[in-house]
Prior knowledge:
Layout: H1 3-26, H2 30-45, H3 56-70, H4 79-93, H5 109-121, H6 123-134
Helix pairs in contact: 1-4, 2-3, 2-4, 3-4, 4-5
Amino acid sequence: xxxxxxxxxxxxxxxxxxxxxxxxxxxxxxxxxxxxxxxxxxxxxxxxxxxxxxxxxxxxxxxxxxxxxxxxxxxxxxxxxxxxxxxxxxxxxxxxxxxxxxxxxxxxxxxxxxxxxxxxxxxxxxxxxxxxxxxx
Length: 136
């Protein structure tokens, strides 16, 4: 891995950790958390045919699990997973991250990287949620 790629990955991970810290704080205020989720959903809907298309359903599932966690209907998920998921969504939501979203062609590479990282980290929790949701 080149030094430049390593440095970019370090910047992305630092920004993601900041997003997780923000997620932890925002989760204390259900109204503010719901607003962030709505904003993430609006951004996601606007990208249905864009660069994040392949992750659309996964990001939607991430939004749904946080919604159900906030409203109290689904609590069978570890706190660290909720923070990672919400942190990933906050990172995705931010237009000014390591690679700003407005840069054509590459603006969403870091968002996709963070979302993929979160999906890998919380895969089992999301699968359990998906089963729970199907049984509702």
